[in-house]
Amino acid sequence: MEVIYEDNHLIIVNKAVGEIVQGDKTGDTPLSEIVKQYIKEKYNKPGNVFCGVTHRIDRPVEGLVVFARTSKALERMNRMFREGEVHKTYHAIVEGHPEKPEGMLEDYLVSDGRINKTFVTDKSNKDAKLSRLRYRTIESLDRYTLLEIELLTGRKHQIRAQLAAMGHPIKGDLKYGAKRSNRNGGISLQSHRIDFTHPVSKQPIDITLPDEPSL
Fold first, then answer.
1. Distance in angstroms (rounded) separating the CA atoms of residues 182 and 105
2. What is the C-alpha separation between 197 and 76, in angstroms, rounded?
3. How far apart are the first and last CA of the chain?
């Protein structure tokens, strides 16, 4: 586990492809438990250790995840995520080359929990949620494009579904129409930057990863 930032209230880690943030039906050890063990051993803490999940990124995605070390931080971070006060930027390698090098995507999305997939739908669908993101081209490759994505809403599989609907699925994302898988079993999507005001100290927190998404 790579710890990027920590203080008395927060810990930010770089999640690897294949790790789950929170426990699920697979029974695999989640990152939240690994963080708990790290805190317990580093600070020699007896008994149970608090580690609150403030947000999640999908299992095949890599990059920054914020955990709360105190209930106060968890409560405030949850509110900040709900109210759009946490700014998240992703890097994605997509198949092909978008017609416009930058733009805004606005779609109505609906998720099907039975197959764990999100679809673009019509706004008349009562379960649909308006979803928005901005993208811009960083680099055009031979068959792929590296995009920077500013997430403006936080829907399940939002980036994956919207880019696929645009005709440019994320490299390796077979679920959303990619032509082939990645060697590491993940998809080429990285939670690259996170920017917010610290929930307790009120100091600016702006963390950026140097690496691009895995190929």
1. 26
2. 11
3. 20
Q: How many helices (H) and strands (E) does the chain have?
A: 3, 11
Give me Rg for the CA atoms of the chain. Answer: 18
Question: CA-CA distance, 11 to 123, in Å (whole number)?
Answer: 38
For 215, the token pair is 């190929």
CA atoms within 13 A on the CB side of 146: 12
CA angle, corner 214, sides to 210 and 215, nearest 5? 135
Whole-model pTM: value is 0.93
| Site of tokens 């994956």 | 160
pLDDT (tens digit, 9 = 90+) per residue, 8-52?
A: 999 999 999 999 998 777 788 999 999 999 999 999 988 889 999
Q: Determine the Cα–Cα distance for residues 61 and 133; give it in Å rounded to an integer.
A: 17
